[in-house]
Amino acid sequence: IDILITCAAIYGPIGPFSDNDMSLWEKTISINLIGTIAAVRYAIPVMKKQNEGKIITFCGGGVGGSKSKTNISAYYTSKTAIAGFTEAISKELEGYNININAISPGPVNTHMLDVILDAGELAGKENIDEYKKQKVNGGVSPQKAADLAIFLSSKKSDFVNGKVLSAVWDDYNNFYKIEHKIKNSSLYNLRRVDDFMFFEENVVDD
Q: For the segment 108-153, what is each residue's pLDDT rounded down to a tens digit?
């Protein structure tokens, strides 16, 4: 196994969390999160034996962005957990020449968009209007996620590990210019430590 890409997911229950069927909520976590983890768990021993491998997971639903999506709490929770899992095991794999990173593909028009449009008001008025606009505008091209996956599968990305990358916004083709920062900081991770470090480093005393 040279490359493993895990990108399948379901929305699960759509609507306010307090009204969700918890059995469906748990099923969503099982499919999205545990399904991803199971595939990665299967691949790691093979990759360790060959001392090489690339693993790409998928997160979405606004994970790491400026705002989370409401009324799809099971989906959002599972995708955030995938980002955390990706980071958590990345250090464990460094000694085996194995990289693992997460892709945020952006709002791509897939069958999942039709599912949430069919849910109507359960998706939330603000959300459903946004989804309707996405349907009309065509959404983000899936080619963007494919291109990022190709980059993360290549030798060019050997210094990128445990990161959450946007297929839409991140200029990964120029990552080599900031390789040291990517390798030695929380840049492109979920935490915001670097923002505070930047603030402290640029404070000027009166």
A: 998 989 999 999 999 888 888 888 999 999 999 999 999 999 999 9
- DSSP assignments along 64-96, one per residue: TSSSPPSS-HHHHHHHHHHHHHHHHHHHHHGGG
Give CA–CA dist 127/14, Å, rounded. 11
Whole-angstrom Cα distance, residue 171 to residue 114?
A: 30
What is the side-by-side order of every strand in the sheet holding 53-58? Answer: 3-6, 53-58, 98-104, 164-166
Nearest one of 37, 11, 30, 190 to 117, comparing CA atoms = 11
Report the Cα–Cα distance between both ends of the chain, in Å, rounded.
59
Provide the whole-model pTM. 0.88
Which of the 8 DSSP states describes residue 102?
E
